[in-house]
Specification:
Layout: E1 2-3, E2 9-10, E3 15-19, H1 25-38, E4 43-48, H2 55-61, E5 67-72, H3 84-102, E6 108-112, H4 114-119, H5 125-134, E7 140-144, H6 150-155, E8 158-161
Parallel strand pairs: 3-7, 3-8, 4-5, 4-6, 6-7
Antiparallel strand pairs: 1-2
């Protein structure tokens, strides 16, 4: 925190990117969400390319006075090119993200699977870069998902590349409620 000329504490926000092929990108972002909510900060989470119910939604519902979570995807994995409905949901999400970033209500904004969204053509990288540059100084911005665009990585203040060394999924173990979903 820095001190302004009026003597108030002014918090500077940073840009985080959690990317890579390993497990834990969304989990890392949600850990930050939990910590922020515990400190009294207001958080907005936009999940792109996700529309199914998961245990994290149930847990975050208990923090509804501090955390708003919205999904902008269909309840399925996108295989191949996104449909018009996928694109429409992502566009709606970008509108809500813009409002969350610039509305003054939130301290932390998470764009879960935004990197996947750029790779699929659901989110324009230049739009994200503009969002980063135009965000309020205090706002913490978190982008998750595999395959982060190099321009996003270059602009971020913190980048974590989750590297898969070993995963039981490769042995045919499906995602488990409470652990992966």
């Amino acid at each position: 925190m820095e001190t302004s000329d009026q003597g108030r504490c002014v918090r500077r926000g940073y840009v985080h990117v959690y990317t890579g092929n390993g497990k834990g990108k969304t989990t890392a972002a949600l850990g930050l969400v939990l910590r922020a909510a515990g400190a009294g900060l207001r958080v907005f989470v936009a999940q792109f390319a996700k529309g199914s119910c998961s245990s994290e939604l149930h847990a975050l519902a208990r923090l509804a006075d501090r955390v708003t979570i919205r999904q902008f995807g269909l309840p399925r994995f996108i295989a191949g090119a996104p449909t018009r409905q996928d694109s429409a949901l992502a566009a709606a999400g970008l509108g809500e993200v813009h409002a969350a970033v610039h509305g003054g209500e939130y301290d932390v904004v998470v764009l879960d699977e935004a990197n996947i969204g750029t790779a699929m053509g659901l989110i324009d990288v230049d739009w994200l870069l503009d969002l980063i540059e135009a965000r309020p100084e205090h706002l913490e911005l978190v982008l998750t998902g595999r395959g982060a665009d190099p321009r996003i990585v270059a602009r971020a203040d913190l980048v974590t590349d989750m590297c898969e060394v070993k995963h039981y999924f490769r042995q045919g173990i499906p995602a488990r409620i409470g652990i992966e979903m």
